[in-house]
């Protein structure tokens, strides 16, 4: 197999790339990394600058690609281009801007809440999570306004890299900080998880959810 994706089935950034793979119908081999194993940590450290996953290796082209958005751009080009990243420059900018919103302003605060639970003492946790929840509220409102303004099914034109980024970001963030009074965001999330590529990713993650520190908050429909 020419394309090998290195990642973990519980990792949100791995999910983002898996949605793209399945949506494009691109064949690949999945190499599960176990971060508790020194050998796997060394392996990923040799593939990406910060030793973070996912990473893509294209043996045929002798190319290694790090960073989920860059990997998706690479896969889109391999598939002929223009499917997950538009050919039109203005449309591509819009997709990339929303991709950043999900990585930085949804996944970022979501990860702060998870990290506070995993790594901070109990006294410090409420302060960190209050700030993160405020950031999530701000992102949710921006998404709601956007969906209301466009009336589109997806966040930036046709289904795109931005929707791939949104799936894992909103999946985990929505568990920790529900969407509440954001009806368009909620409806779009339902469309996202119903898309076969996204549904497959969540289905494959299911056996790993016991490792999620907030597993008790997972809605029954995802278990
Ligand atoms: N900006 C990176 C983020 C990658 C990232 O943070 N990956 C997490 C897993 S979801 C990771 O490698 N965590 C382990 C670590 O930080 O050592 C991307 O888009 O691929």
Entry summary:
The protein has 223 residues and is of the alpha+beta class. The protein has helices spanning 12-24, 38-45, 68-78, 89-119, 125-150, 161-176, 183-194, 196-205, and strands at residues 3-7, 29-32, 55-58, 63-66. α1 links the parallel β1 (3-7) and β2.
List the helices and strands and how they pair.
Layout: E1 3-7, H1 12-24, E2 29-32, H2 38-45, E3 55-58, E4 63-66, H3 68-78, H4 89-119, H5 125-150, H6 161-176, H7 183-194, H8 196-205
Helix pairs in contact: 1-3, 1-6, 1-8, 4-5, 4-6, 5-7
This protein binds glutathione (GSH).
How many separate helices? 8
Largest sheet: 4 strands, mixed
CATH class of the domain at 89-195: Mainly Alpha
The share of residues in extended strands comes to 5-15%
Structural class designation: alpha+beta
Low-confidence stretches: none
> What is the residue-mean pLDDT, rounded to a whole number?
96
**CATH third-level topology of the domain at 89-195:** Glutathione S-transferase Yfyf (Class Pi), Chain A, domain 2
DSSP E strands, number: 4
Order of SSEs: EHEHEEHHHHHH
Strand order of the largest sheet: 2-1-3-4
**End-to-end distance, in Å?**
32 Å
- What ligand molecules are bound, each kind once? glutathione
CATH architecture of the domain at 89-195: Up-down Bundle
Shape: globular
Helical fraction: 55-70%
Radius of gyration: 17 Å
């Amino acid at each position: 197999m020419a394309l090998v994706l290195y990642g973990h089935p519980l990792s949100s950034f791995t999910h983002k790339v898996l949605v793209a793979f399945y949506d494009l119908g691109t064949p690949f081999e999945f190499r599960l990394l176990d971060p508790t194993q020194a050998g796997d940590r060394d392996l990923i450290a040799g593939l990406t600058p910060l030793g973070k996953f996912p990473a893509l290796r294209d043996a045929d082209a002798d190319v290694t690609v790090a960073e989920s958005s860059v990997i998706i751009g690479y896969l889109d080009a391999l598939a002929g281009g223009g499917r997950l990243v538009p050919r039109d420059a203005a449309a591509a900018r819009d997709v990339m801007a929303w991709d950043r919103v999900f990585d930085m302003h949804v996944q970022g605060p979501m990860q702060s809440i998870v990290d506070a639970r995993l790594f901070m003492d109990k006294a410090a946790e409420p302060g960190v999570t209050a700030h993160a929840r405020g950031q999530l509220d701000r992102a949710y409102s921006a998404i709601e306004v956007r969906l209301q303004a466009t009336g589109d099914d997806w966040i930036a034109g046709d289904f795109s890299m931005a929707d791939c980024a949104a799936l894992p970001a909103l999946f985990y963030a929505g568990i920790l900080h529900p969407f509440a009074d954001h009806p368009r965001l909620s409806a779009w999330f339902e469309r996202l998880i119903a898309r076969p590529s996204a549904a497959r990713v969540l289905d494959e993650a299911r056996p790993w959810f016991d490792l999620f520190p907030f597993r008790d908050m997972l809605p029954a429909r995802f278990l």
